[in-house]
Amino acid sequence: MFAADAKTLNRIEPVVRRVLIADPNMASARLLLDIMKSLGAREVVTESDESRVLDHAREMEPGLIFTERNGARLDGERLARNIRRSNLACRRAPIIMMTADATATSIKGARDAGIHEFLRKPFTSADLFRRVENVALKPRDWIEAVGYVGPDRRRFNSGEYAGPQKRKADKPTTAAGAALAVKDQALRILAASLAQFDNDPMQALRAVRQQAETLKALAIKTSDARLAVAAAGLEGCLSVGAPTKATLAGPVGAILALAEPGTELARAG
């Protein structure tokens, strides 16, 4: 029988305090409920209907969500996307997807839907605990874009993949490199958000706000006065009335003009 040490249980407690389980299989849901209770969960709700899962998410504000990939009244990928793009307080809560169908397609689908971890059924208590420990103690950067909302996909850990990193830039080796990576990603998201504004104005605005906050913090951290001024200009625009694509074009353009020389954004500008 797997047993976690008390110190680790104390550290994961804030995340597992309230758990929501979306699983049409009652036996599977009950097993997961029992395991989570043993890990310190105080409130665990199980549900098989996707629409009611969202109602529970709104009411209980879970710190951790489990979802089966498919069910008669459940689509785990759609559920994850709806949570990520909602105004729910738990929209950033870790989501762990469970399925016996752990194919390359299902793993990619889970990653692109905003899932934090992937768990193949049947699983052991130790398998489950490793996933919970990852989401509770190893937080990933949050990506707020238009095409994707969720944890950084470059850090996705399905537990099923043991090959090399997919991108050389997955882990910048210096602080300066990490800062450049953050800036480049934020600028790319800003450019895409403006280009896709008419398709999803609400999410585009949310993405722009997140990048303004990210770039402002980066400017302070790196003492980049030009970036600080440009980010402040964008925040000012966002704080006045209802920003539109037209009103955002100027301040977003001012930030994009600060793209690092040699990058794709700089060449496009």
From TrEMBL:
<protein>
    <submittedName>
        <fullName>Two-component system response regulator</fullName>
    </submittedName>
</protein>
<dbReference type="InterPro" id="IPR050595">
    <property type="entry name" value="Bact_response_regulator"/>
</dbReference>
<dbReference type="Pfam" id="PF00072">
    <property type="entry name" value="Response_reg"/>
</dbReference>
<dbReference type="InterPro" id="IPR001789">
    <property type="entry name" value="Sig_transdc_resp-reg_receiver"/>
</dbReference>
<keyword id="KW-0597">Phosphoprotein</keyword>
<dbReference type="InterPro" id="IPR011006">
    <property type="entry name" value="CheY-like_superfamily"/>
</dbReference>
<feature type="domain" description="Response regulatory">
    <location>
        <begin position="18"/>
        <end position="136"/>
    </location>
</feature>
